[in-house]
Sequence to fold (70 residues):
Amino acid sequence: MNTATYTVTGMTCGHCVTSVTEELSELDGVQEVQVDLPTGAVVVTSQEPLPESAVRGAVEEAGYQLTSAS
Ligand code: 9UX
Fold:
């Protein structure tokens, strides 16, 4: 199992959190998505490491920006 933490900017409410969570959950192998609204920290647990481009694409599809990955 792989866990990665990202920072997403632009989320301001619980619906934003739902949108980001749903988009990221659709990526192959994603098991869990945890979003902390106040900080924008997003922790994604997946079977294999995810390409950053895929994560960025999902976040942007939801309407937000990926500003860091680790
Ligand atoms: Mo409500 Mo969150 O417009 O973008 S869904 S603030």
Remarks:
- Residues 2-69 form a domain with the Alpha-Beta Plaits fold (CATH 3.30.70.100).
- The chain has one domain: 2-69.
